[in-house]
Each structure stands twice: as C-alpha cells, then as structure tokens.
Specification:
Oligomer: single chain
Distance between the termini: 47 Å
Number of helices: 10
Largest sheet: 2 strands, antiparallel
Helix content: 40-55%
Strand order of the largest sheet: 1-2
Number of strands: 4
Radius of gyration: 21 Å
Structural class: mainly alpha
Order of helices and strands: EEEEHHHHHHHHHH
C-alpha cells in the first residue's frame, strides 16, 4: 500500500512523549492535531477544538437558514434544523462527546438559537422552549445515544466487542436495577472520558424496568422517561 504523504500527519500522545520526527519516503511528516473518523483530536485527547469548529459550522448554516427563509413557523424551522444543522453537532458522539462544561454550553447555544427563531417561543426560557417543542437538550440526546449503544452491546448486537467493552458486576451486594456494570479506576482523568467508562455510571442508575428488557424499541421508550433523573 502506498501512502499519500500530503495526507499523513503525526499525532504525539502520552505523558513524556519524546515527540520523535518521522520520514515518509525520505520526507519529514508534519506533526499536528489530526482527524479520526472526521473528528479532530489533539495530543491531549481533548475535543475542545472539534467542538469549536463544529459549533461554528452549525451556526453558519443556521444563519443561512435565517436569512433565506421568511417563515418562522416551527413546521419550517425544525425540519431544516434537524436536517442541516444538528448533524454537525452529533456525528460519532460515542467517540468525541464533549468533556468540559464550556464545550457543552457552546454546543447548546446553537440549539437555543434555532428554537428562538421559531415564532411564538422568543420570550420563553430555554427549558420551556424545549418542552414546548418536545425536544431534549443536546446533552440528553448524547446520553440517550450512549445508553442505547451500551444496551445493544450488552444484548449481543456486537457480541465480540461488547465482551471487551463492559464487565458485569456479579456481586450480591449490588442495589438498584440488578444489572450493574463494573466501574474501572484510572490514574488519569482523561481515561474516564472514554465511552465505555463514562456510560457505566448512567447505566447503573437506570431503573430495573428500563434495563430488564429484550426489546430495543421498548428500552428506548422507557429510557426517554428516565432521562430526566440522569441529567
């Protein structure tokens, strides 16, 4: 396989990384933050830069909708927001979900701009606007997606990977839903942000009637009712 030197970058990660330089066919390869599955990742595995760029792109598209559409009816604005704006804020969230509150707020600002564009909702609070439109905050939508993915892993949709991602807690002392997962312990906080770890705490807080289900569709319906207690 031949590699295109212009498309290759070096990403240095880890404490005390010597940051060696590398050659490809005799030419030096530049080091910089790089995209993985379209997600911009830096040497500290921080997603802040990606959140900033994603929010900027979504705001630009939302601005185009505002300038080009005379109607402010929800039947017009919401489908455009769902189709053109929100996808920029949510691709591969199991990989890059925002780690810091400032990044979460930056993403939420985009959805608040969209809901304020709708006629009749301008003077309502953010929570009231979402309730009126039947929407979740982006934070809740990400958590919902995480829990649905975890449910699929644990119920055999991706059997090989699921066995590696999660470990059941077989202790007799567990309380709650009876389907507890083990929470790992790690020295570095960044490790706690990985999908397989950040979702465990929320899975363990779900009520028994939500997790003891064979059907994904029923799980989604029960999960929607339980999200208010998780976030």
């Amino acid at each position: 396989m031949e590699f295109n030197k212009a498309k290759c970058k070096v990403l240095h990660m880890g404490w005390g990384n010597p940051k060696h330089k590398y050659r490809l066919r005799g030419e030096w390869v530049e080091g910089s933050p790089e995209k993985d599955l379209g997600i911009l990742v830096d040497e500290k595995l921080s997603m802040s830069q990606h959140c900033t760029l994603a929010a900027q792109e979504a705001k630009h598209i939302l601005g185009c909708i505002k300038r080009s559409m005379a109607s402010r009816l929800r039947e017009v604005i919401l489908p455009l927001y769902f189709a053109l704006v929100r996808p920029h804020l949510e691709p591969c969230v199991q990989l890059w979900s925002p780690q810091y509150r400032k990044d979460m707020d930056l993403m939420e600002q985009v959805q608040r701009r969209a809901t304020k564009m709708i006629r009749g909702l301008e003077h309502l609070s953010c929570e009231e606007q979402l309730t009126e439109l039947g929407l979740f905050s982006l934070e809740k939508r990400r958590l919902r997606g995480h829990l649905i993915a975890a449910f699929q892993y644990l119920n055999g949709a991706y059997r090989k990977d699921g066995d590696n991602l999660f470990s059941r807690d077989n202790s007799d002392r567990t309380r709650g839903n009876g389907f507890k997962l083990k929470e790992g312990r790690f020295r570095l906080d960044i490790r706690k942000k990985f999908f397989a770890l950040r979702v465990v705490r929320h899975c363990n807080r779900l009520p028994r009637e939500a997790v003891a289900l064979p059907s994904l569709e029923v799980f989604k319906a029960r999960l929607d009712g339980a999200l208010s207690t998780l976030v």
